[in-house]
Amino acid sequence: IPKYSYWACVWAAVICYAVMVVISYLLGQHFYPINYPLKKIGLYSLLAGVLIAASYLLPISSLALRLLYKTVLIAVYCLVIMKNDIPVSMLNPIISKIPIVKNLIKK
């Protein structure tokens, strides 16, 4: 374990939580079936994983540029969710009038 340091704890926790999610889902579907949008959940999880990998794989030495890059990645994730799931009518009237945001959001 000393060879892996805290990363062993991190990965053990991630695996444990993933197993708990799967067991909870299976038990929940057995006793009270709910039609979850699994495809959409999977795509959002995959997109999050790809963006997280992109944030770690591109080494940027400048703190300002690194923060800007990671902020852009978070904005991309948020815009994808807004485009797919949030209708314009639910947004604040001021935000929905911004042309860039209005064009990206599902109507």
Q: What does it look like?
A:
The structure is a single chain. This protein is an all-alpha fold and 107 residues long. Helix content is 74%, strand content 0%. α2 (38-57) packs antiparallel against α3.
- By secondary-structure content and strand pairing, the structural class works out as mainly alpha
Quote the beta fraction: under 5%
Low confidence ranges = none
**Number of helices, where a helix is a run of at least 4 consecutive DSSP H or I residues:** 5
Sheet having the most strands: none
What fraction, in percent, of the residue positions are helical?
A: over 70%
Which sequence of SSEs, written as H and E, runs from N to C?
HHHHH
Separation of the first and last Cα atoms:
52 Å
Q: What's the mean pLDDT score?
A: 87
Radius of gyration: 19 Å
Number of E-state strands? 0
From the structure above, extract its key features.
107 residues; mainly alpha; flat; 0% strand
Short description:
This protein is mainly alpha-helical and 107 residues long. Helices cover 74% and strands 0% of the residues. The protein is flat and about 50 Å long.
Helix and strand layout, with pairings?
Layout lengths: L5 H26 L6 H20 L5 H23 L7 H4 L2 H6 L3
